[in-house]
Amino acid sequence: MSAVGFPDQEDEPLSPHNFDRLTTFIKDYCGIHLTDAKHGMLEGRVRRRMRAIGITNPNDYCRIVFDEKGPNVESEITHLIDAVTTNKTDFFREATHFDYLCQKILPEILASGQRHIKIWSAACSIGAEPYTIAMLLDDFCRKHHGLTYSVLATDICIQSLEKALTGRYPEAMVDPVPPDLRRHYVMRSSDPDCHEVRMSPKLRSNIAFARMNLMDEHYPAPRDFDVIFLRNVLIYFDKPTQVKVPAKLSSHLRVGGYLILGHSESVRRDGLPLHPVANTVFQRR
Ligand SMILES: C[S@@+](CC[C@H](N)C(=O)[O-])C[C@H]1O[C@@H](n2cnc3c(N)ncnc32)[C@H](O)[C@@H]1O
């Protein structure tokens, strides 16, 4: 508080008007739906971003982003979106999907005579999901001569993609990786004080990372994926976006390809050629 008892600018809360402007903008830009209950969470994340650029008043920040439209506003919007995304992820998260991949999908591809396997991780966060997929594909291809694979890994969050590209993770994060895969694909530092591991160059070279917004009308991606992982991102979207995104993605699967959602997610299949084949796994027919 200032000496005369009025709030300093730093203490000024995000106004309801600016909360509405932010939530509307975020929903239109990336589909993330923030209800009134998320006011505190949004304000906290915006304030963290403001601190990084030396702004103290959240309403000033909104004025700069929405009203002044200066030359750096596009880049600030990218930072804002980075700040509001939730990037929680893990290696081998929701492991039954990876069992299904190894026990059903990969043997089916092998039996069909197809020689190249193509998988898309469509909200890849910091990379734990695409590296998990790449470890399993690489292992499968090593055991079946003549097979190759590629993984496309996309996300809207630039900071997450930058982390993913380095392939570096805290040591404890790879605990869920089975020991034989860890031996092959996870490199440890020779420095005993370094508690970071790195994914092998082989895996890194088989994954293409790119920024992609699932809200875009069209996705600049091939239309013959064998599997698309779309896990733990629909939950953040509003209802219309929860319908549109799986519909658009299903047109990027080959016939017989699979769409895999997070365990707590579902898809409205009216008119879509998607058939449930396992818990939150759908096949394009
Ligand atoms: C909770 S993480 C899920 C990561 C991973 N799929 C998993 O299940 O572990 C959700 C990710 O979705 C991304 N995301 C949110 N909105 C997006 C959008 N419109 N387009 C692309 N990615 C988006 C976020 O940046 C975040 O990295």
What can you tell me about this protein's structure?
This protein has 285 residues and is an alpha/beta fold. It has 2 domains: 9-84, Chemotaxis Receptor Methyltransferase Cher, domain 1, CATH 1.10.155; 96-284, 3-Layer(aba) Sandwich (Rossmann fold). 41% of the residues lie in helices and 19% in strands. The chain is built from 10 helices and 10 strands. The protein has helices at residues 16-30, 39-52, 58-68, 73-84, 96-112, 128-143, 158-166, 179-185, 201-205, 239-250; strands at residues 116-121, 148-155, 168-170, 186-188, 196-199, 207-211, 225-230, 253-261, 274-278, 281-284. The strands form 2 sheets. Strands 6-2-1-7-8-10-9 form a 7-stranded mixed beta sheet, with helices on both faces. α2 (39-52) crosses α4 (73-84). The termini are far apart. S-adenosylmethionine is lined by residues 30-32, 85-89, 93, 123, 125, 129, 155-157, 160, 213-215, 231-233, 236, 262.
Determine the CATH topology of the largest domain.
Answer: Rossmann fold
SS element count, helices: 10
- What is the architecture of the largest domain at the second tier of CATH? 3-Layer(aba) Sandwich
If strands are numbered along the chain, what order do they take across the biggest sheet?
6-2-1-7-8-10-9
**Count of individual domains:** 2
Structural class category? alpha/beta
The fraction of residues assigned to DSSP E strands is 15-25%
Ranges where pLDDT stays below 50 over 5 or more residues in a row are: 1-8
Largest sheet: 7 strands, mixed
Q: Radius of gyration in whole Å, from Cα? A: 21 Å
Strand tally:
10
* Residue share in helix: 40-55%
| Mean of residue pLDDT values | 95
CATH homologous superfamily classification of the largest domain: Vaccinia Virus protein VP39
List bound small molecules. Answer: S-adenosylmethionine
CA distance, first residue to last residue: 64 Å
- Helix and strand run: HHHHHEHEHEHEEHEEHEEE
Q: Estimate the global geometry from the Cα principal axes.
A: globular
CATH class type of the largest domain: Alpha Beta
